[in-house]
Amino acid sequence: MGLIYLFRRLVFIQVLLGILAFCMAEQNPEMLLISGALVALSWYVVEGPTGKPLPQSVIMTGAVIAVAWVMLDIFYFHNTNLIIAIGHLTMWLQVLQLYGEKRNRDYALLLVLSLLQMVGASVLSYSVVFGVMLGVYGVLALGTVLLFQIKGTSDRILEARQSQAPQGVEVQRPKVVVGRGHRWHLRGMALAIGLACMATALVVFVLMPRTSRFSTPLEGADMSHSIAGRQVGFSREIDLGVPAPLAGSKEPMLNLSVRLHDADIGSSDGQPWRLRGAALDTYNPVSHVWSRGPGLAWYDMPIDLPTGGKRLAPEPAGGPVIEADITLRTSSQRTLFTLLPMTWVESPTLGSALFNPRDGTLQAAGATTGAVVYRLRSPLTPDADVFEAYQRLLRPTEAAMRRQRPEAAPPHQTEENYARGWSVQAAQIRKLALDILKPHGLPLLDTEISNQAAAVPEALDGDTQARIAQILTDYLHDHYRYTLTNPVSTGDPLANFLLTTRQGHCELFASGLVAMVRTLGMKARVITGYVAHDYNSVGGYYVVRQSDAHAWAEIDIPGQGWRTFDPTPPAELLAEHQRGGSYLTWFRQVYEHIEFAWLSKVIAFDKETRDAMLDGVRTQFRKSSKDQDTMLGWVAAYLRQLIDNWKFDALSYTIMAVIVLAIAVGIVSLIRIAIVRRRRLVALQLTRLPARQRRALSKRLRFYLVMLDMLERHGHHRPSWQTPAGFAKELAEAQPLSFEPVVALTDHFYEVRFGHRDIDETRRKMIRAHLSRLQDALAHRA
Predict the structure, then answer these.
(1) Does 232 have pLDDT greater than 60?
(2) What angle do CA 488, 491, 494 make, to 5 degrees?
(3) Which residues fall within 8 angstroms of residue 460, CB to CB, at 6 or more apart?
């Protein structure tokens, strides 16, 4: 009963582990709390000392309700995607099954449902924690299946006894007796199966890559994460009418490594890097939402990203150029974060991308799976030539679009009017900007700004406009307070921020600066993305998290291009995003580096990565074979020298063929001897003894092998499952006179093998006499 009870506990633990893994993959703690409590309670209700399973009718009714609810949620409410729906269904079916009476088919159903749930969890999550849980689940499932076989055999024996027992007689379940040899046999079989599965999985992983750079999800299938819409972090739009964004989770979103002159640059004390994602140029005064202008999508230009990269603009002559490697840990969104402006981009995991020369955004051309890795180059001090190169890329596309679709480019999205103009309390906001700038003696025209963008006076050159933007940025730093609590107000939240409350979050700061410079006729836009500041010293890269989402402004300065201005007070920004150090920091960095290696080496393993890995192995093999300082190189050089020096003739080839044939015959003979020896040890039941005892007993029990050889020559083979005593009894019952010596010889076998008797001269004479009688009897029968 011990192994049967162990099997029940393993099934319970396996089901609980599968539910835990799925809830963690879905990031649904409420579901984990409810289902986990129900599963834990089922053990007491059903398996406890006074436990009683629920009637099967109740279980079936609950299953029907679960199926109906999931179908209603999918087809009527459209709230759940297919993977999560199947996971929830299998979860509730398992919970219901745990409360019912369980026979072997019910246990098999539980194991299958748990496996399906683990498969669904593997689609939703690819974290290293889930990888560890999946490994533990595999080991647990292997042990459960092996014990299931023992339980099934025990149940069949019990059923056979019950069918043969007289009515009213209670039949006990057969006790599972596992000896030391059988225990090691079971462990060895489990280890062999586990290693075989591991080797098979490794071969399949290498031969059949998990992802492809052109892979796309099934058309019409919603494979997105269930809580993707609730995650706080980067957004392609900004809604100023809702409460301030929360701090967000600490889940890593991407990794960034930056190099200058082939040397890594970055540390925890360095300046943060801003990774731009979306450029928002349009503000809706009714919904209070910043968004990308509807006409800008027409300027998205497809670019191929082959090995060698795509050149977008010339790099400044003599200026420092940084090279950044970015790894998106999740590809649920198509946005590719960049350092503006880019001059070159390359990706080993993406076949193509969409680059917009007007707003400088980069997006994946299609849906992807796994991590996304790409590399880009950006000038550390960009000049106007880079942005002029963007315009040269844009002009042919814009001209062709105007010829083919005159209505495709709205007037407010032309180059002249892009990111200009302000309509919400423009006069008051312009007056605020002029009042801020007045003490600095700048030549500004005191003109009213209409809803249309006004031209900046020619007297305001690029340096003056850059000074205006910096003065307004510094004023917001010094006179406005950063807070994540939105003040209660009526009207436009941006106007209230600038003119009344003077406090808000980074989105309001960026929007306020853009609004002020636009009232002065300058071009400006709001940028959403991430700020990278958390440097992982173990891996040598920045870790960017959801909580690192940030918003800032970009202003077009004549002769300089689009420049970044961040009006959020830097001290408050640093306090919000900087992670405090502790003695656990190093362990956290090690864990995140392991997780990053898991994502980049395992999850993102595609055909290109496999080919690159195999090419690297081949290259290293060829390099080592040419280096005589290595063992491989020495062997290769020796063989080349041997071939060059030896002159083989027909006789030499003949001798070599004979030697090879002799070696082959010797190997085959050794294999045959090993097989025969193994068969003899099995026949003598010596496989579990130490080598010294095996050798001593095999000599003394040789007579039993002689007897088996005699019998096999006449067609009497002892099955491997049958005991020596059972085999002798079966022969004696068929032919008592002929096979009586077999019974006598088997008795001698048991006395020597298990009774530890020596073979003295008397016993030796008796054994010879029995063998002689058996030989005569077999010859007479023949």
Answers:
(1) no
(2) 80
(3) 442, 443, 444, 468
